[in-house]
Amino acid sequence: MIFHHVESSRLGSVRGEDIPYIFGLPLVLGMPNFPQNYSRQDMGVAEAVLNFVTNFCKTGDPNEAGHQQAMLHPDYGTARERTRYRGLTWETYETTTQQYLSIFYLVSF
To answer: Which residues does the UniProt record annotate as the domain Carboxylesterase type B (predicted)?
Structure first.
């Protein structure tokens, strides 16, 4: 997993900045060791990352249908924002095409 998240106070991503997203901390608005003012977009990215990691741990497939049911914080945006990453498929990496999934505020391949 490559995580590129730029905070306004830094230039570039720092090692370990993906940890709060993998554990879904933006969905619960942080923890004492990870104080953060998470945005609604951060909550959406955390939901997508948490779902992929959870599905992969449960089944070996990050795309396992029917398991993408993260509990969202009630402050997390509109219905459209809450479903932005649902139905997203993480395709198998192929060395010939080098296609990878980029989870950003706007998802792209």
So the answer is: 10-103
Instruction: Return mean pLDDT, the chain.
Output: 71
Cα–Cα distance measured from residue 10 to residue 16, given in angstroms and rounded to the nearest whole number: 14
How many Å apart are CA 77 and CA 22, to the nearest integer?
Answer: 20
Q: Which of 19, 15, 47 has its CA nearest to residue 33?
A: 19
Separation CA 44–CA 36 (nearest Å): 15
Residue pLDDT, tens place only, 52-69: 888 888 888 888 765 445
Query: Domain limits of the chain?
Result: 1-109
27-58 per-residue burial string, b: 16 or more CB within 10 A, e: under 16:
beeeeeeeeeebeebbbbbbbbbbbbbbbeee
